Amino acid sequence: MYGILVYVVLAVFISGLMVGRTPEYVGKKIEAEDVKMAMLVALVFPLVILVFTGFSSVNGFGSSSITNPGPHGFSQVFYAFVFGAANNGSAFAGLNANTLWYNTAVGFDMLTGRILMIIPMLAIAGNLADKKYAPPLLELFP
Predict the structure, then answer these.
(1) 97-108: per-residue pLDDT in tens?
(2) What is the extent of the structural domain holding 110?
């Protein structure tokens, strides 16, 4: 549900930029702080996934679990961290993910992928809750 709110905030902001009006959502103005937090939410997953994937790909303890070298081996590692951050974790059948490194790294991936996304989302919710309802005006873009 809160993922939808992030996309709504970004869509309303971008459409407000295109029309030249101040964006608002459910009677509350969308300000720069809301958009900054929405962008943090949108960038958490790529940042967390790519950092863990890159670190696992260049170090011996991460690359030693790859059974299929080459691009498919990289996609095995990438898949493990994508599903660690977004879901409850899984891996391609060719990746030996039952090692100390992958158990720990995918665990931190799950933790950071969820916590680092929830904190800015709560900031958006708190910021919208503190704002007073603004009646529809001509300069606002509902």
Answers:
(1) 788 888 899 899
(2) 2-135
Asked if the structure places residue 68 within a domain, the reply is yes
Predicted model pTM? 0.76
> 10-48 burial string, b = 16+ CB within 10 Å, else e?
bebbeebeeeeeebbbeebbbeeebbebbebbbebbeeb
DSSP β-bridge partners for residue 24: 29
What's the DSSP call for residue 37?
Answer: H
For the chain, the domain total comes to 1
C-alpha 16/C-alpha 30 separation (Å) is: 9
Altogether, the residues listed in the chain come to a count of 142
Is 140 a domain residue? no
The CATH number given to whatever domain includes residue 15 is: 1.10.287
Residue pLDDT, tens place only, 43-95:
988 999 999 999 988 888 777 887 777 888 888 888 888 888 887 777 777 78
Tokens 């670190």 locate to 55
Half-sphere CA count of 8, side-chain side, radius 13 A: 16
Per DSSP, the chain holds a count of helices (H) and strands (E) of 5, 3
- First-residue to last-residue Cα distance in the chain: 21
What tokens appear for 47 in the block? 């940042």
